[in-house]
From TrEMBL:
Protein name: Two component transcriptional regulator, winged helix family
UniProt keyword annotation of Electron transport present: no
InterPro entries linked to this entry: CheY-like_superfamily, OmpR/PhoB-type_DNA-bd, Sig_transdc_resp-reg_C-effctor, Sig_transdc_resp-reg_receiver, WalR-like, WH-like_DNA-bd_sf
Segments forming domain OmpR/PhoB-type: 163-275
Feature: DNA-binding region: 163-275
GO cellular component: cytosol; protein-DNA complex
Domain of life (superkingdom): Bacteria
Species for this entry: Brevundimonas subvibrioides (strain ATCC 15264 / DSM 4735 / LMG 14903 / NBRC 16000 / CB 81) (Caulobacter subvibrioides)
């Protein structure tokens, strides 16, 4: 399968453009008042994940080490997100989630992230078909964990909006249904010419509204024809992002040097599309 040109796969591109402020710090507002349920039977890992969520802004992280306890907690409390280890003592995380999805409790529809060492394609498919909204491989970095949790909270918020609603970001209008990106300057609207892959990348980043999207997330959602994560996926993404930055600058020169590049790096492995409505 081809993720781009052959040159892209062989080229290492340094992306050193960073956001002026840390978008991960801004997640504190997104996480404020939120409650998470964590099913994890490794005490050290449970401590670490809970600590990261609380420091990032979560109000409560309830921890359990068995599926039976997770079901009881989820049946009694409304959680904003569930983080479930697949292999646990007693009822495992996948069976726990399957049973939870059949109930009408306060957390039966909460977004669920499966966090597991079972990383094969078959196990991933089983997890997603079993009710998981995302499937994360152990070990997972803090950056990836927080970005994935934030992504699930965004998706819940989008459920309340009509499907294919246009997204406005400053002078840009992104239309998911028509798969177009348009720029309005001095009352005149024009189409930004993007390839299908470039549109998918811009759509994923703009939908995040200035929140970080990790390169692993971008790969999963934009390079959908791939069934595995190649060793050089970061190089492939970096090359594509570098070209996309140039393409956007060429087609939107009116924005000026202070706003270009529109896609900027956040920490080591994440990207954001500038929120042009902020400030």
């Amino acid at each position: 399968m081809n993720a781009g040109t052959g040159d892209e796969r062989m080229t290492t591109v340094e992306i050193d453009t960073t956001a002026e402020t840390d978008p991960f710090a801004a997640l504190a507002e997104v996480f404020a008042g939120r409650r998470a349920l964590l099913l994890e039977d490794d005490p050290a890992l449970a401590d670490h994940v809970a600590d990261r969520l609380l420091k990032a802004g979560f109000e409560i992280v309830d921890r359990v080490d068995a599926g039976e306890a997770a079901l009881q907690m989820a049946g009694s409390h409304p959680y904003d997100v569930l983080i479930l280890d697949r292999m646990t003592n007693g009822l495992d995380g996948l069976e726990t989630l399957k049973r939870l999805r059949t109930t009408s409790g306060p957390s039966s529809d909460a977004p669920a992230l499966m966090l597991t060492a079972l990383t094969g394609e078959r196990q991933r498919v089983e997890g997603l078909l079993g009710g998981a909204d995302d499937y994360l491989s152990k070990p997972i970095g803090d950056e990836e964990l927080l970005a994935r949790v934030a992504s699930q909270l965004r998706r819940v918020a989008r459920r309340a909006r009509p499907a294919n609603t246009d997204l406005i970001n400053g002078p840009f209008r992104l239309s998911p249904g028509a798969r177009t990106l348009k720029l309005t300057v001095e009352g005149t609207e024009r189409l930004i010419d993007l390839s299908p892959l470039e549109f998918a990348i811009v759509s994923e980043l703009m939908t995040a509204r200035g929140q970080p999207v990790t390169k692993t997330m971008l790969w999963d959602r934009c390079w959908i024809e791939w069934t595995f994560l190649p060793d050089n996926f970061v190089n492939i993404i970096d090359a594509r992002i570098s070209a996309l930055r140039r393409r956007l600058k060429e087609q939107a020169p009116e924005l000026g040097e202070d706003l270009h590049p529109l896609i900027v790096s956040a920490r080591s492995q994440s990207l954001i599309f500038r929120d042009l409505d902020a400030g």
